[in-house]
Amino acid sequence: MYTTNATLETIAQRLGNSRSVLVLTHLKPDGDALGSSIAVVRSLNLTSPQGLPPRARAWYAGPCPAWQSDIVKSTPHMVIDPARGPDRNADFETVLIIDTGSWTQLEPFAAFLKGRAPESIIVDHHRQGDADIADTRFIDGGAAAVCQPAAEICRHILGLESITKLPVEVATPLYLGICTDTGWFRHSNVSGAVLHTAADLLSAGVNHSALYQLIEQRDTLGRQKLLARALDSLSIEASGRLGVMSLTKSDFAAAKADPGESGGFVDYATFIPAVRVSVVLTEASDWQSPAEGGSPADAKRKAVTKVSFRSKEGLNAVDVNAVAKEFGGGGHIRAAGARLEAPMDEARRRVVEAVTRHLNGDR
Fold this sequence. Notes:
By secondary structure, the chain is of the alpha/beta class. It folds into 2 domains: 8-216, Alpha-Beta Complex (inorganic pyrophosphatase (n-terminal core)); 222-359, Diaminopimelate Epimerase, Chain A, domain 1 (Roll), CATH 3.10.310.30. The protein contains 13 helices and 12 strands. The protein has a 6-stranded parallel beta sheet with strand order 3-2-1-4-5-6, covered by helices on one side. It has a 6-stranded mixed beta sheet with strand order 7-8-9-10-12-11, sandwiched between helices. Helix 1 (8-16) packs across helix 5.
């Protein structure tokens, strides 16, 4: 059921004809989520009637990357507290959900979205999602980044003949999303199509070098120390084919790092030639361990572990999306994630067992 039932052109027309548009994306937005949402909001506001307030805005939930404000700038947006959620009675004619279509990833907005499927649209490049969120959908599981279809939406909204004609303030966040979701063109999802889109965005005036410095060359000391702790935890499983790292709340505290600063760590184990799958487990809950004064039963009940998966191309490559689905998660064939309601040790055992099965061809 999670399939395309509308074209990008009809979606752009509907957005362009709406008096007010809200753009949502997944919890803890990454470069693709931020880039696509910002580009669409800016495109819609460039076409807003003169003298009227901007008709589009974005809502974000959860920790955002350190560079978020440098990219979003004055674009109308709001960062909400995931625990409280937004005003569920807020009035928007159309809701665009981009870079996800999963209730799990939209949990902070769930109360707001319930009952709004007729006025909601999903544009996504993930293969799994919940079709009941939105009646109108465009799903391109072959796109390396959702910024690919988003670029076409922006082009149609602005009535342009080519992506190369996009305003640079629209082209830049779109290019950002493509770069971050392809690992700056290193991942296996790089295709001729995404390179063509990236080339068109560069022709529109994007400054590649400045953007790379802004996003990739701004690590905090805390992130570097957190990476050291993650690498120190690295163990090799499944006869050398699986690399596993783990980060606890105490690791973040000791490194003085923020929750969003572990992005990209899952790639490091794949630098080892024999490793086919890399996993990072992160203690994600606010529960108190027995050492912190909580009870063992309460700790087990409330414990949540976030898991990030990455796999390499090649013979007998593992579909980590299939692995993540076993735990209620999902994503892409080579990059996926899940959240387990379990303490770190239990989550690690279950994840290692599952990945090992897939590595052995026993699914």
